[in-house]
Amino acid sequence: MVLIDKFNRTIDLLEIAVSRSCQYGCAHCRTTKDQQDKELFSTRNILSFIGLMAKLGLKRVRLIGGEPLLRPDIMELVHGLVSVNPSLSVSLATNGKLLESFASELADERLCKIFVTLPTLDPTLFKSITGHSEIEEIMGNLERAISHNALPITIKMALLPGVNDHEIEPMIDWAVDRGLDLYLIETKSPAPYPDGAENILLNRLQKRYQMSRITGAAISNNPWKLEGSETKIKIITRTGRCECKSCNRMWLTPDGILSLCHELSFALDLNDLFENNPTEAEIAEFAMKIALNKPAGIQDFELTKT
């Protein structure tokens, strides 16, 4: 079964912010340093919802934050998600500070991907971006976690024009040496790339690296292969994240609010659904509201709730 909205888009990806807390205070991130988790949407309810959604066609779940590994029952949640449906792909994003502590448990769960956010390899710049001077600890944790071959680690580098984009090539070389894939992510910086991040970065990188496009998915999802290495690079632009006509995702907040659009304040409250112990049929009926109410995009302000 497939969940298709009224604009004929297949909805098959859910990003779950499982924690508000984070040890860092990166200016480009929506999370505030040391923000505390209060009322978290329960793991039990998350698993009930995901189990039914997987039957309706949900294919991928990404655990994000905050810092997901700060959630007290994170491994219970991870284990439940990878067990709830064999066709469900589960990935997790982390800043890496706690990765070594969870490496063995995460390896046992066979996640699809573990995204490690790393803005720079330079200690001074790392402190400037994150507010912490712990890069040696982070890198040590990461190196030891990489040694767990069962951990499918991918590096995510948030690009801050004029701040850390001169570090792209050193980051690529570091990733190549370790056989890791790398995502270069254009942030919502007040000083964006003037003519489109992808073209600018590709023109720059192709002067140094031999790159070929890997095909098979939507063009925005096709990474670049660095010839002579195991590394693939994906460039994620600001505009690419807002390709409304092909949007296939939803977002769940730590307190159980299901957002149907990343740019518009339009959401459904899962707390209202679960306060009366819903049946599978009632959860399925709620899922249909997702398909009916997901807006076309940032130009679609005439929304009708059902």
Automatic annotation (TrEMBL):
Keyword Transferase: no
GO biological process: Mo-molybdopterin cofactor biosynthetic process
One Pfam entry name: Radical_SAM
Molecular-function GO term, any one: GTP 3',8'-cyclase activity
SUPFAM superfamilies found in the cross-reference section: Radical SAM enzymes (SSF102114)
Keywords of this entry: Iron, Iron-sulfur, Metal-binding, Molybdenum cofactor biosynthesis, S-adenosyl-L-methionine
Residue ranges of every copy of the Radical SAM core domain listed in the record: 6-218
KW Iron-sulfur (keyword) present: yes
PANTHER family, per the entry: MOLYBDENUM COFACTOR BIOSYNTHESIS PROTEIN 1, MOLYBDOPTERIN COFACTOR SYNTHESIS PROTEIN A
Name under which the protein is recorded: Radical SAM core domain-containing protein
Annotated source species: hydrothermal vent metagenome
Lineage, broadest ranks: unclassified sequences, metagenomes, ecological metagenomes
